[in-house]
Write a structure and sequence with these properties.
Number of domains: 1
Radius of gyration: 13 Å
Largest sheet: 5 strands, mixed
CATH topology: Rossmann fold
Strand order of the largest sheet: 2-1-3-4-5
Distance between the termini: 26 Å
Strand content: 15-25%
Shape: globular
CATH class: Alpha Beta
CATH superfamily: Resolvase, N-terminal catalytic domain
Length: 114
């Protein structure tokens, strides 16, 4: 059996704003549909962008799925959804590189990795 997820949209709201989460979800789903990407959604709410990775269950799950090769595309609305700490963002981008995954940041409309 193939349990590969392939791609994930990571959404997060520091104040558990349903409208923010829904906006991120709709934007990610629209992008995925336009690009023929099947999508799983991983949500962390509420969670500050300064909260370390290991204290965010959704982000821990996402990192694990990347490390074991089950996700090769990560979509986020903005890099601040991953973290507001530059070192954590760099660590996440390194993880993406190490596992030959892609990071798609919708507010930048760019793919950061192969």
């Amino acid at each position: 059996m193939n349990y590969k997820i392939e791609s994930a949209l990571y959404i997060r709201s520091a104040n558990n704003s349903r409208s923010s989460l829904e906006s991120q979800r709709l934007k990610g789903e629209k992008y995925a549909k336009l690009n023929s990407i099947s999508l799983s959604i991983i949500e962390d709410a509420p969670s500050s962008g300064f909260t370390p990775f290991n204290e965010r269950s959704g982000l821990r799950r996402l990192v694990h799925l990347i490390e074991v090769g089950l996700i090769n595309i990560v979509i986020v609305d903005s890099l601040i959804r991953i973290s507001r700490d530059v070192n954590q963002i760099l660590s996440f981008v390194s993880l993406i590189d190490k596992h030959n995954a892609k990071l798609i940041v919708l507010d930048e409309a760019e793919v950061y990795r192969n």
